[in-house]
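Per reviewer request, we include the raw input and output of the structure prediction for the construct analysed in the revised manuscript.
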Amino acid sequence: MMRNNSSDFDPESAIIDAELLVKYRMVNRAIEALERAIDNLPRHTGLREKLREILIDAGRRDQAAQQCLALASLHMNAGEMERANERLLEAKRLDPRVSVTGPLRDVRAPKAPAHSAQKILSGNLADVNLFDIIQIIENSRLSGVLLITAPSISGEIHLAEGLIVGAQTADEAGMPALQKLLDTVDGNFEFEKSSKEFERTIRANSNTALILDMLRAKDEENQGLDVLDNL
């Protein structure tokens, strides 16, 4: 679990959470989670190595190069010259614009530009991940209803200042409804901004923590089914 106090911060949990997010194709959330973790422990090489790995896999070569430079700096300060040189050369391969002759700085990958607030968001779930849509709404601290219309299920997710506070389908409400809606990968979505106060059927301090808990439960359930299939 991540905390603001760096002395209580568990970097290994942050790395595991990032791997879980990547497993379920939420790469942007994984990157953001690691960036927040690095804010707490900017000199932790494990966090930066995991972020570098995910950035490379995501094709963000320039950002990965910046992490390589940061790692090279850390390794040089620790007297690990061979590892520092490896990261310097990798930075140059990833981004030819990188200069490896000047002084190194301890830097983080640049953050993506903030999403501008919009009254209505709409589109097709085949083109946009539902988790990314929720991230846009959360970043903009919008309140309203995210409507999901799909062949298999239809429903709505309620948000207050970007935070998920409820969900509703034809026959379920709260967490069961949210789980089914988040599993939807086709159909259409539309977000309607609203000042209406929704009944709070879901309580969480952050959308990321909520989604991670749901993914862990889903992952454990799938692993249990795999074990049964192999019996």
